[in-house]
């Protein structure tokens, strides 16, 4: 094997042979740059992630960043949420009778994780709302909100409506507002409402960053599924690795902070706000909530003590075989 420095010198010498001596410096700089960055290039190739994201994950999770990168490159499972009117075990049996095999989730009581992905048309009763395709981690939101009869609940950034329909399933007597700024995406929410025959959800077009859409009634509970980098669901959307850049994180955290501050003013004293992202980047999650608690003295962190995830301020779930990467934080507004 030719040593790298010798190969570079030989290649630079070609410029003389082809009578392009002016290119020698340019060729030399390019090749030495490649040699200098070869370790980074090799690492990027090994993990199939951009270097900025590898660096960020290593900074946030020095002990297990490699596990996150490896999980991101695996195939994501297809998980369904069984309607609470149907016993999960019974539905699992129905699936098994048509050779669709699944595992029950240990953390989400309505979740079935399919051994292999199938067309939704093969799922018994899908068109009539028997189930909804939703990752295990996303199914935890409604559990954490725990909707009660008569409560006015805002599902902010609601589209496509998976969490809103889950809230409605768990408590048909709660009043739910599904808010989103995108008219086209709200049509998807309407499709889901029609399929599930939810009558306690009102669709509202509006921007969670302002209050122009609000009718002045304070909410008992707010679910904020905040805009984020989606770095917890890379295995479902691998193009995130190409589309997201470091500068995007800064803009995302500013938007999150703006929405959080705005929605906090719409919450009743004694009310609860559940903050959620499908990100694993701490700036969007625990750091965001820590800064919020510093800014708003009437806000208190309610510790989540459940057998999943990790953390004292909110709970971070990293991507694993059974579930996507997700973050949840419960905030109480002091009376």
Automatic annotation (TrEMBL):
One of its GO terms (biological process) is rRNA base methylation. It holds the Pfam family RsmF-B_ferredox. GO terms for cellular component: cytosol. Keywords: Cytoplasm, Methyltransferase, RNA-binding, rRNA processing, S-adenosyl-L-methionine, Transferase. It is found in: Cytoplasm. CDD domains: AdoMet_MTases. The keyword S-adenosyl-L-methionine applies. The keyword Thylakoid does not apply. Its EC number is 2.1.1.176. Transmembrane segments: none annotated. It catalyses: cytidine(967) in 16S rRNA + S-adenosyl-L-methionine = 5-methylcytidine(967) in 16S rRNA + S-adenosyl-L-homocysteine + H(+). Residues 68-334 form the SAM-dependent MTase RsmB/NOP-type domain. This is 16S rRNA (cytosine(967)-C(5))-methyltransferase. It comes from marine metagenome.
